[in-house]
Write a structure and sequence with these properties.
168 residues, mainly beta, 6-stranded antiparallel barrel, 6-stranded mixed beta sheet, 7% helix
């Protein structure tokens, strides 16, 4: 079964079994809605949980799972990832992609020159930045904007880009 991270449990909160989650999803209100099914990835045994309630607090999501009512039940989940299954992934609009679909794609220019593979995605602000690992060169940082990214072909396993002046 494939799991996709939506957050990381960084600590407990209070004594009634709430956990503090650093959110890594673009859809927190959907992912952490009451009744939603999530998976805690702890060791080799994924633990299925149901969101009883969730709320934002100081930049973190505080989540109470229906299965746990006590701080002692949840403190072993610290540093574990919260995930969804592949079936629970939301449908994205055309031109939108999950990180796991982009990482590993080959990057080629509109002239057909191969630059490398996308190894990481940064989200510093206005737009994402794809980190392209190049052979025998430093990594290339590509802004994910329409002027640069011309085509994403998931089936073909590549991204076609036009390098603006100063990008190389």
């Amino acid at each position: 079964m494939n799991y996709y991270h939506v957050g990381k449990i960084v600590n407990t909160h209070g004594i009634r079994g709430e956990v503090k989650v650093m959110v890594t999803t673009d859809f927190p209100e959907e992912r952490f809605a009451q009744g939603k099914q999530l998976v805690i990835l702890k060791g080799d045994e994924p633990i299925n949980v149901t969101v009883e309630k969730a709320r934002m607090h100081k930049g973190m999501e505080l989540i109470k799972f229906a299965e746990f009512d006590n701080i002692n039940d949840v403190q072993t989940f610290r540093d574990c990832f919260l995930a969804v299954t592949e079936e629970d992934q939301a449908e994205l609009a055309e031109g939108e992609y999950y990180y796991h679909q982009i990482i590993g794609l080959k990057v080629v220019t509109t002239e057909g020159r191969e630059l490398g593979k996308i190894k990481e995605i940064l989200a510093p602000g206005a737009n994402d930045v794809w980190v392209v690992q190049r052979p025998k060169q430093s990594d290339l940082l590509l802004p994910v904007i329409d002027d640069v990214v011309k085509q994403v072909d998931l089936d073909g396993g590549y991204v076609e880009v036009e390098l603006l002046e100063g990008l190389e």
